[in-house]
Specification:
Strand order of the largest sheet: 1-9-8-2-6-3-4-5
Number of helices: 10
Number of domains: 1
Shape: globular
Structural class: alpha/beta
Protein name: Phospholipid/glycerol acyltransferase domain-containing protein
Largest sheet: 8 strands, mixed
InterPro entries: Plipid/glycerol_acylTrfase
Low-confidence stretches: 256-289
Transmembrane segments: 27-54
Mean pLDDT: 86
Keywords: Acyltransferase, Lipid metabolism, Membrane, Transferase, Transmembrane, Transmembrane helix
Bound molecules: 2-acetamido-2-deoxy-beta-D-glucopyranose
Main location: membrane
Length: 336
Protein backbone atom coordinates (compact mmCIF):
# COMPACT_ATOMS: atom_id res chain seq x y z
CA UNK A 1 0.00 0.00 0.00
CA UNK A 2 2.93 2.32 0.57
CA UNK A 3 3.09 2.77 -3.15
CA UNK A 4 0.14 5.04 -2.59
CA UNK A 5 1.74 7.07 0.15
CA UNK A 6 1.80 10.12 -2.12
CA UNK A 7 -2.00 9.96 -2.09
CA UNK A 8 -2.13 10.22 1.65
CA UNK A 9 -2.70 13.61 3.18
CA UNK A 10 0.58 14.62 4.79
CA UNK A 11 -0.91 16.44 7.73
CA UNK A 12 -3.56 13.92 8.75
CA UNK A 13 -2.35 10.63 7.28
CA UNK A 14 -5.76 10.11 5.68
CA UNK A 15 -5.93 8.37 2.30
CA UNK A 16 -9.30 9.45 0.91
CA UNK A 17 -9.06 7.70 -2.47
CA UNK A 18 -8.28 4.12 -1.47
CA UNK A 19 -11.31 1.86 -1.89
CA UNK A 20 -12.87 0.43 1.25
CA UNK A 21 -12.37 -3.31 1.23
CA UNK A 22 -15.40 -5.49 2.03
CA UNK A 23 -15.41 -7.88 4.95
CA UNK A 24 -14.63 -11.33 3.58
CA UNK A 25 -17.93 -13.10 2.89
CA UNK A 26 -16.70 -16.41 4.37
CA UNK A 27 -19.48 -18.91 4.90
CA UNK A 28 -22.07 -16.35 3.84
CA UNK A 29 -20.83 -16.36 0.28
CA UNK A 30 -23.58 -18.68 -1.02
CA UNK A 31 -26.20 -16.46 0.61
CA UNK A 32 -24.62 -13.38 -0.95
CA UNK A 33 -24.63 -14.99 -4.37
CA UNK A 34 -28.28 -15.98 -4.01
CA UNK A 35 -29.25 -12.51 -2.82
CA UNK A 36 -27.37 -10.95 -5.69
CA UNK A 37 -28.96 -13.19 -8.31
CA UNK A 38 -32.40 -12.75 -6.82
CA UNK A 39 -32.21 -8.96 -6.62
CA UNK A 40 -30.41 -8.21 -9.85
CA UNK A 41 -33.37 -8.70 -12.23
CA UNK A 42 -35.69 -6.59 -10.09
CA UNK A 43 -33.08 -3.91 -9.66
CA UNK A 44 -32.19 -3.71 -13.34
CA UNK A 45 -35.84 -3.77 -14.44
CA UNK A 46 -36.90 -1.07 -12.03
CA UNK A 47 -33.90 1.16 -12.79
CA UNK A 48 -34.36 0.76 -16.53
CA UNK A 49 -38.10 1.45 -16.34
CA UNK A 50 -37.55 4.51 -14.25
CA UNK A 51 -34.57 6.06 -15.99
CA UNK A 52 -35.56 5.17 -19.55
CA UNK A 53 -39.29 5.94 -19.34
CA UNK A 54 -41.03 6.97 -16.17
CA UNK A 55 -38.78 9.86 -15.24
CA UNK A 56 -39.81 11.69 -18.40
CA UNK A 57 -43.51 11.56 -17.62
CA UNK A 58 -45.25 14.20 -15.51
CA UNK A 59 -46.01 11.71 -12.76
CA UNK A 60 -45.69 14.07 -9.86
CA UNK A 61 -42.83 14.36 -7.48
CA UNK A 62 -44.40 12.11 -4.85
CA UNK A 63 -44.82 9.20 -7.23
CA UNK A 64 -41.27 9.57 -8.52
CA UNK A 65 -39.92 9.65 -4.99
CA UNK A 66 -41.85 6.47 -4.23
CA UNK A 67 -40.22 4.76 -7.21
CA UNK A 68 -36.79 5.90 -6.06
CA UNK A 69 -37.48 4.49 -2.61
CA UNK A 70 -38.34 1.18 -4.26
CA UNK A 71 -35.03 1.27 -6.14
CA UNK A 72 -33.28 1.80 -2.81
CA UNK A 73 -35.40 -0.83 -1.11
CA UNK A 74 -34.29 -3.67 -3.38
CA UNK A 75 -30.65 -3.65 -2.16
CA UNK A 76 -31.88 -3.40 1.42
CA UNK A 77 -31.26 0.27 2.12
CA UNK A 78 -34.01 0.63 4.61
CA UNK A 79 -32.31 1.82 7.73
CA UNK A 80 -31.64 5.51 7.66
CA UNK A 81 -30.33 7.29 10.70
CA UNK A 82 -31.16 10.97 10.36
CA UNK A 83 -29.96 13.68 12.68
CA UNK A 84 -30.35 17.40 12.28
CA UNK A 85 -28.19 19.90 14.13
CA UNK A 86 -30.17 21.66 16.81
CA UNK A 87 -33.21 19.38 16.50
CA UNK A 88 -33.94 16.57 18.94
CA UNK A 89 -34.57 13.20 17.37
CA UNK A 90 -38.23 12.78 16.51
CA UNK A 91 -39.15 16.45 16.83
CA UNK A 92 -38.52 17.29 13.21
CA UNK A 93 -42.08 18.37 12.50
CA UNK A 94 -41.75 21.24 14.98
CA UNK A 95 -39.05 23.07 13.14
CA UNK A 96 -39.07 23.10 9.39
CA UNK A 97 -36.45 25.81 9.08
CA UNK A 98 -33.72 23.31 9.97
CA UNK A 99 -34.22 21.16 6.90
CA UNK A 100 -33.59 22.16 3.28
CA UNK A 101 -36.67 23.52 1.56
CA UNK A 102 -37.27 24.92 -1.95
CA UNK A 103 -34.71 27.44 -3.23
CA UNK A 104 -32.14 26.33 -0.63
CA UNK A 105 -28.78 24.85 -1.54
CA UNK A 106 -27.44 21.54 -0.28
CA UNK A 107 -23.67 21.09 -0.05
CA UNK A 108 -23.38 17.34 0.12
CA UNK A 109 -20.56 14.93 0.77
CA UNK A 110 -19.77 12.84 -2.30
CA UNK A 111 -18.81 9.23 -1.83
CA UNK A 112 -21.23 7.00 -3.71
CA UNK A 113 -23.89 6.91 -6.45
CA UNK A 114 -26.33 6.44 -3.59
CA UNK A 115 -25.80 10.05 -2.48
CA UNK A 116 -27.76 11.36 -5.43
CA UNK A 117 -30.34 8.60 -5.27
CA UNK A 118 -31.04 9.29 -1.61
CA UNK A 119 -31.15 13.07 -2.04
CA UNK A 120 -33.52 12.64 -4.99
CA UNK A 121 -35.80 10.33 -3.03
CA UNK A 122 -36.07 12.87 -0.22
CA UNK A 123 -35.84 16.28 -1.85
CA UNK A 124 -36.33 15.84 -5.61
CA UNK A 125 -33.60 18.47 -6.20
CA UNK A 126 -31.65 19.80 -9.15
CA UNK A 127 -28.19 18.23 -9.38
CA UNK A 128 -25.05 20.07 -10.34
CA UNK A 129 -21.40 19.24 -10.93
CA UNK A 130 -18.71 21.56 -9.59
CA UNK A 131 -15.21 21.95 -10.97
CA UNK A 132 -12.17 23.06 -8.99
CA UNK A 133 -11.32 26.20 -10.98
CA UNK A 134 -14.66 27.78 -11.77
CA UNK A 135 -17.64 29.27 -9.96
CA UNK A 136 -19.93 27.93 -12.60
CA UNK A 137 -21.65 24.59 -12.25
CA UNK A 138 -22.95 22.10 -14.74
CA UNK A 139 -26.65 21.26 -14.52
CA UNK A 140 -27.16 17.50 -14.77
CA UNK A 141 -29.92 14.96 -14.40
CA UNK A 142 -30.28 12.51 -11.52
CA UNK A 143 -28.93 9.74 -13.72
CA UNK A 144 -26.02 11.96 -14.70
CA UNK A 145 -25.30 12.60 -11.04
CA UNK A 146 -25.37 8.88 -10.27
CA UNK A 147 -22.90 8.18 -13.08
CA UNK A 148 -20.64 11.02 -11.94
CA UNK A 149 -20.00 9.16 -8.72
CA UNK A 150 -18.49 6.36 -10.77
CA UNK A 151 -16.71 8.36 -13.43
CA UNK A 152 -13.26 9.87 -13.65
CA UNK A 153 -12.54 13.14 -11.91
CA UNK A 154 -12.55 16.12 -14.25
CA UNK A 155 -10.64 19.28 -13.67
CA UNK A 156 -12.50 21.25 -16.34
CA UNK A 157 -15.97 20.90 -17.82
CA UNK A 158 -16.12 19.18 -21.17
CA UNK A 159 -16.83 21.25 -24.24
CA UNK A 160 -20.51 21.94 -24.76
CA UNK A 161 -21.39 21.29 -21.11
CA UNK A 162 -24.42 23.26 -19.92
CA UNK A 163 -22.73 25.68 -17.55
CA UNK A 164 -24.59 28.07 -15.28
CA UNK A 165 -24.19 29.21 -11.70
CA UNK A 166 -26.04 28.66 -8.46
CA UNK A 167 -27.44 32.19 -8.42
CA UNK A 168 -29.12 31.62 -11.77
CA UNK A 169 -30.44 28.20 -10.80
CA UNK A 170 -31.94 29.59 -7.59
CA UNK A 171 -33.58 32.41 -9.54
CA UNK A 172 -35.09 30.22 -12.25
CA UNK A 173 -36.07 27.27 -10.07
CA UNK A 174 -37.54 28.80 -6.92
CA UNK A 175 -39.49 25.61 -6.17
CA UNK A 176 -36.51 23.28 -6.24
CA UNK A 177 -33.54 22.57 -4.01
CA UNK A 178 -30.10 22.78 -5.61
CA UNK A 179 -27.58 20.06 -4.77
CA UNK A 180 -23.88 20.88 -5.01
CA UNK A 181 -21.04 18.42 -4.49
CA UNK A 182 -18.35 20.95 -3.62
CA UNK A 183 -15.57 18.35 -3.38
CA UNK A 184 -15.99 17.83 -7.15
CA UNK A 185 -15.14 14.14 -7.04
CA UNK A 186 -15.80 11.12 -4.84
CA UNK A 187 -13.80 10.02 -1.82
CA UNK A 188 -14.12 6.99 0.43
CA UNK A 189 -15.67 9.24 3.05
CA UNK A 190 -12.61 9.37 5.30
CA UNK A 191 -11.64 12.95 4.54
CA UNK A 192 -13.13 16.12 3.10
CA UNK A 193 -11.37 17.47 0.00
CA UNK A 194 -10.80 21.18 -0.74
CA UNK A 195 -13.93 22.84 -2.14
CA UNK A 196 -14.73 24.22 -5.53
CA UNK A 197 -15.54 27.95 -5.46
CA UNK A 198 -18.96 27.13 -6.97
CA UNK A 199 -20.75 27.69 -3.65
CA UNK A 200 -19.62 31.32 -3.71
CA UNK A 201 -22.17 32.05 -6.41
CA UNK A 202 -24.93 31.45 -3.85
CA UNK A 203 -26.98 34.60 -3.19
CA UNK A 204 -26.39 36.00 0.32
CA UNK A 205 -29.86 35.16 1.67
CA UNK A 206 -29.97 31.61 0.39
CA UNK A 207 -29.44 28.91 2.97
CA UNK A 208 -26.63 26.44 2.31
CA UNK A 209 -27.19 23.19 4.19
CA UNK A 210 -24.12 21.00 4.61
CA UNK A 211 -25.26 17.36 4.49
CA UNK A 212 -23.07 14.38 5.22
CA UNK A 213 -24.06 10.90 4.09
CA UNK A 214 -22.17 7.91 5.44
CA UNK A 215 -22.70 4.27 4.65
CA UNK A 216 -22.31 1.11 6.69
CA UNK A 217 -20.69 -1.00 5.38
CA UNK A 218 -18.59 1.63 3.66
CA UNK A 219 -17.71 -0.66 0.76
CA UNK A 220 -20.52 0.87 -1.29
CA UNK A 221 -18.49 4.07 -1.57
CA UNK A 222 -16.85 4.49 -4.97
CA UNK A 223 -13.59 6.45 -4.65
CA UNK A 224 -12.09 4.56 -7.59
CA UNK A 225 -13.69 5.48 -10.91
CA UNK A 226 -15.13 2.91 -13.23
CA UNK A 227 -15.67 0.13 -10.69
CA UNK A 228 -19.27 -0.46 -11.71
CA UNK A 229 -19.30 -4.19 -11.07
CA UNK A 230 -17.73 -4.00 -7.64
CA UNK A 231 -20.30 -1.39 -6.70
CA UNK A 232 -23.26 -3.40 -7.99
CA UNK A 233 -21.98 -6.57 -6.34
CA UNK A 234 -21.40 -4.90 -2.97
CA UNK A 235 -24.75 -3.17 -3.20
CA UNK A 236 -26.86 -6.17 -4.12
CA UNK A 237 -25.10 -9.02 -2.34
CA UNK A 238 -25.10 -7.65 1.19
CA UNK A 239 -28.38 -8.17 3.04
CA UNK A 240 -28.79 -4.57 4.21
CA UNK A 241 -27.10 -1.17 4.17
CA UNK A 242 -27.42 1.69 6.56
CA UNK A 243 -27.19 5.36 5.66
CA UNK A 244 -26.28 7.85 8.35
CA UNK A 245 -27.52 11.29 7.39
CA UNK A 246 -26.43 14.44 9.20
CA UNK A 247 -27.74 17.89 8.37
CA UNK A 248 -25.90 20.92 9.74
CA UNK A 249 -27.34 24.32 10.49
CA UNK A 250 -27.58 26.51 7.43
CA UNK A 251 -24.54 28.54 6.38
CA UNK A 252 -24.94 31.77 4.44
CA UNK A 253 -22.71 33.18 1.76
CA UNK A 254 -21.94 36.34 3.66
CA UNK A 255 -19.11 37.72 5.63
CA UNK A 256 -18.47 36.01 8.86
CA UNK A 257 -20.42 36.74 12.05
CA UNK A 258 -18.33 38.04 14.98
CA UNK A 259 -19.25 35.00 17.07
CA UNK A 260 -17.83 32.53 14.60
CA UNK A 261 -14.83 34.75 14.09
CA UNK A 262 -13.91 34.46 17.74
CA UNK A 263 -14.18 30.71 17.56
CA UNK A 264 -11.80 30.60 14.61
CA UNK A 265 -9.11 32.53 16.41
CA UNK A 266 -9.34 30.22 19.42
CA UNK A 267 -9.05 27.26 17.09
CA UNK A 268 -5.95 28.78 15.63
CA UNK A 269 -4.46 29.27 19.10
CA UNK A 270 -5.30 25.71 20.09
CA UNK A 271 -3.45 24.34 17.16
CA UNK A 272 -0.33 26.44 17.65
CA UNK A 273 1.39 23.61 19.50
CA UNK A 274 0.57 21.21 16.74
CA UNK A 275 2.85 21.59 13.76
CA UNK A 276 0.91 19.27 11.53
CA UNK A 277 -2.30 21.25 11.97
CA UNK A 278 -0.54 24.42 10.92
CA UNK A 279 0.99 22.91 7.83
CA UNK A 280 -2.36 21.47 6.87
CA UNK A 281 -4.14 24.79 7.14
CA UNK A 282 -1.48 26.66 5.22
CA UNK A 283 -1.60 24.02 2.53
CA UNK A 284 -5.34 24.41 2.25
CA UNK A 285 -5.03 28.17 2.07
CA UNK A 286 -2.40 28.15 -0.64
CA UNK A 287 -4.39 25.78 -2.78
CA UNK A 288 -7.44 28.00 -2.38
CA UNK A 289 -5.77 31.31 -3.05
CA UNK A 290 -4.72 29.98 -6.44
CA UNK A 291 -8.26 30.58 -7.46
CA UNK A 292 -8.43 34.30 -6.80
CA UNK A 293 -10.62 34.24 -3.77
CA UNK A 294 -10.89 37.03 -1.28
CA UNK A 295 -10.37 36.28 2.37
CA UNK A 296 -14.12 36.62 2.96
CA UNK A 297 -14.82 34.07 0.30
CA UNK A 298 -12.32 31.61 1.68
CA UNK A 299 -14.04 31.94 5.04
CA UNK A 300 -17.40 31.02 3.54
CA UNK A 301 -15.95 27.87 2.00
CA UNK A 302 -14.08 27.18 5.21
CA UNK A 303 -17.29 27.25 7.24
CA UNK A 304 -19.09 24.85 4.92
CA UNK A 305 -16.00 22.61 4.81
CA UNK A 306 -15.68 22.52 8.58
CA UNK A 307 -19.37 21.71 8.92
CA UNK A 308 -19.13 18.81 6.46
CA UNK A 309 -16.01 17.43 8.14
CA UNK A 310 -17.59 17.72 11.57
CA UNK A 311 -20.80 15.99 10.47
CA UNK A 312 -18.85 13.17 8.85
CA UNK A 313 -16.50 12.99 11.86
CA UNK A 314 -13.54 13.26 9.51
CA UNK A 315 -10.76 15.75 8.90
CA UNK A 316 -10.20 18.02 5.96
CA UNK A 317 -7.43 16.96 3.63
CA UNK A 318 -5.49 18.99 1.10
CA UNK A 319 -5.53 16.45 -1.76
CA UNK A 320 -7.06 17.96 -4.87
CA UNK A 321 -8.89 16.71 -7.93
CA UNK A 322 -5.56 16.64 -9.80
CA UNK A 323 -4.19 14.28 -7.17
CA UNK A 324 -7.19 12.06 -7.55
CA UNK A 325 -6.67 11.87 -11.32
CA UNK A 326 -3.06 10.83 -10.70
CA UNK A 327 -4.26 8.28 -8.20
CA UNK A 328 -6.73 6.75 -10.65
CA UNK A 329 -3.96 6.46 -13.21
CA UNK A 330 -1.57 4.77 -10.78
CA UNK A 331 -4.30 2.51 -9.53
CA UNK A 332 -5.32 1.30 -12.98
CA UNK A 333 -1.69 0.55 -13.88
CA UNK A 334 -1.37 -1.59 -10.79
CA UNK A 335 -4.19 -3.81 -11.95
CA UNK A 336 -2.69 -4.53 -15.35
C1 LIG B 1 -37.15 27.04 14.51
O1 LIG B 1 -35.80 27.44 14.34
C2 LIG B 1 -35.64 28.80 14.05
C3 LIG B 1 -34.18 29.09 13.72
O2 LIG B 1 -33.33 28.26 14.38
C4 LIG B 1 -36.17 29.61 15.24
O3 LIG B 1 -35.99 30.98 14.98
C5 LIG B 1 -37.63 29.27 15.45
O4 LIG B 1 -38.11 29.96 16.57
C6 LIG B 1 -37.83 27.77 15.63
N1 LIG B 1 -39.24 27.47 15.65
C7 LIG B 1 -39.80 26.60 16.50
C8 LIG B 1 -41.26 26.38 16.35
O5 LIG B 1 -39.14 25.99 17.32
C1 LIG C 1 -20.81 35.28 -1.79
O1 LIG C 1 -20.01 35.81 -0.76
C2 LIG C 1 -18.75 36.26 -1.16
C3 LIG C 1 -17.98 36.70 0.07
O2 LIG C 1 -18.76 36.97 1.17
C4 LIG C 1 -18.90 37.38 -2.20
O3 LIG C 1 -17.62 37.79 -2.65
C5 LIG C 1 -19.72 36.85 -3.35
O4 LIG C 1 -19.94 37.88 -4.30
C6 LIG C 1 -21.04 36.33 -2.84
N1 LIG C 1 -21.83 35.83 -3.96
C7 LIG C 1 -23.00 36.31 -4.32
C8 LIG C 1 -23.67 35.70 -5.48
O5 LIG C 1 -23.52 37.26 -3.74
Amino acid sequence: MEKYSQFRDRATGIAPFLPVVSEPAGIYLPIYICLFLFRLPFFVTLCATYFLFLQWFPLGSLFKKALLWMIMGIPGIWWIDLQIDGVKKGSLAKNESRVPSPSNVIASSFTSPLDSLYLAAIFDPIFTVSYPHTRQVEYISLFGAILRALSKPKEFPSKGAKMTDIKTLVRYHPKRIIVVFPECTTTNGRGTMPFSPSLLATPPRTKIFPISLRYTAADITTPVSGEYWTFIWNLLSHPTHCIRVRIAEAVYNTSISPEVDKKFSTDALDSLGDESAISSSTETLTSLSDQDMTEEEQKVLHRVGEALARLGRVKRVSLTVTKKSEFIETWSKRKK
